Amino acid sequence: MTDEPLSDAAAARLRQAITAVQRDLDVIGAEIGLVGAYSGGYRIVLTDTGDFLSGEPLYADDESDALWCAASNAQALVNEFRWQVWPVCPEHDLGLHLWSAGAGPDWTLDHTDWNVPAWRCRAGKGHEVALVGELSR
């Protein structure tokens, strides 16, 4: 992750990741997009309001990075500008956390792939709800 402007290839990866995260956002009717900023960089924005997070560097060195970046930005945008908890566990009605897929019940990362982001609930011992992009399935 760097603070340097995104390359065209990284921006393309981020657009693809935004498409996946958008599937999760469709449940609440929010929409995000990637727009060019006046400084030549990019920003992830809520498309209905144009709100964005300032000072948040975007990263997309590979497809996994792009998915982590898009999901964390989407969650922060919804929380900050819509004053809404998202995503929410369908079983416990609690806000979900972005974490590595396959983590154990105590949130350990032994034998997991840190590169695959998932939405995880902290209720009880914690449980994985869905991979990012598959929440609405």
Descriptive account of the structure:
The protein contains 2 helices and 5 strands, in the order H-E-E-H-E-E-E. The strands form 2 sheets. It has a 3-stranded antiparallel sheet, covered by helices on one side. The protein is an alpha+beta fold and 137 residues long. Helix 1 packs across helix 2 (63-81). The longest helix has 19 residues, at 63-81. It has helices spanning 8-25, 63-81; strands at residues 32-36, 42-46, 97-100, 117-121, 127-131. The chain has a domain at 8-81. The mean pLDDT is 85.
Compose a concise summary of this entry:
By secondary structure, this protein is of the alpha+beta class. It contains 2 helices and 5 strands. β4 (117-121) and β5 form a beta hairpin.
Structural class: alpha+beta
Major pleated sheet: 3 strands, antiparallel
Strand content: 15-25%
Percent in helix = 25-40%
Radius of gyration: 15 Å
Number of helices: 2
Mean pLDDT over all positions: 85
What features would you highlight for this structure?
137 residues; alpha+beta; 5 strands; globular
Topology of helices and strands:
Blueprint: H1 8-25, E1 32-36, E2 42-46, H2 63-81, E3 97-100, E4 117-121, E5 127-131
Antiparallel strand pairs: 1-2, 3-4, 4-5
